[in-house]
Amino acid sequence: MKQIEWIKKIRDTSPRVHCITNYVTAGDVANMVLAIGGSPIMAQGIKEVEDVTSICQSLVLNMGTLEEERVEAMILAGKKAAGLGHPVILDPVGVTASAFRRESALRILKAVRPSVIRGNVSEIHMLEQALMGMETGNLCGVDSVPGDWSGQPEKAAISLGNRTGAVVVMTGTTDIVAGHGRVMKIRNGHSFMGRITGSGCMLDGIIGAFCAVGPPVTEADAMTEAAAMAVCAHGLCGELAAGKAVRTGGGTGSFRMYLTDYMSILDDGMLERGKKIEIS
């Protein structure tokens, strides 16, 4: 991979990242975007999302607390971002939980064609099956269901990417980034990240910041790299935060605070030394 100074670019330009996200984690997402050097805007009113999107450099659509009007706002914002050539990051949170979420995700995919899709193993598999027209039941909420999916998990990520044209980020014990002929396995991270609410939502915002300073969305290979480096950055900060929490006798509350702390002091040298990527 090219040694681009991603974090320096973000902090030099402070890209605006428009996040239509869920109310459970909105504050955490905003603080994480600020920590990496971006400027978050958390507008979701249907009458203003197009205007806000037009002054931002990337758009994050997170389906965590989905409502009918929120879907319409996401589609309006997504179309505006796509028309401006801005990257769109879609997180189909809980797509395994209800038919409404699956139908909404399919509507967004059809109307917007996101640049990056980020989900856990269950969500990526379920979304791929829904695109194939397969009847699926409701399995779980926002958490991944271990053991439900057989075979190599990267196959679902590759298939979903081929069907949508998006870079697919599948998070789990090993994170997978699949995009345009490349598959990257990323082994940064810590189990504490699965014990707090919103770790994946925070990652959405980080991906939004990295993609906002990358080359145009038409340069698909560069979008893959931006997404992969965002995943590495988030996972590395998780490792560092967990280490400090353990050393200081803290638990998951301390870990959450340290996660933001480390993102705020992360630099390109730390990221280059600490990233754990296997590329195929």
The mean pLDDT is 92
The name CATH uses for the topology is UDP-N-acetylmuramoyl-L-alanine:D-glutamate ligase
Low-confidence stretches: 142-150
The major beta sheet can be summarized as: 9 strands, mixed
Number of domain modules: 1
CATH homologous superfamily heading: Ribokinase
Quaternary organisation of the protein chains: single chain
Series of H and E elements: HEHEHEHEHEHHEEEHHHHE
* CATH architecture identity: 3-Layer(aba) Sandwich
Helix and strand content put the structural class at: alpha/beta
Helical element count? Answer: 11
Measure the end-to-end span: 12 Å
Identify the overall geometry: globular
Biggest sheet, strands in spatial order? 2-1-3-4-5-6-7-8-9
Can you count the beta strands?
A: 9
* Rg calc: 17 Å
Beta-strand fraction estimate: 5-15%
Helix content: 40-55%
CATH class, anyone? Alpha Beta
Describe it.
With 280 residues, the protein is of the alpha/beta class. The chain has a single domain, classed as 3-Layer(aba) Sandwich (UDP-N-acetylmuramoyl-L-alanine:D-glutamate ligase), CATH 3.40.1190. The protein is 51% helix and 14% strand. Strands 2-1-3-4-5-6-7-8-9 form a 9-stranded mixed beta sheet, sandwiched between helices. Helix 9 packs across helix 10. The chain is globular. The chain starts with 5 loop residues before the first helix and ends with a strand. About 3% of the residues have low confidence.
Question: Any key phrases for this structure?
Answer:
280 residues, 11 helices, 9-stranded mixed β-sheet, alpha/beta, UDP-N-acetylmuramoyl-L-alanine:D-glutamate ligase, globular, single chain
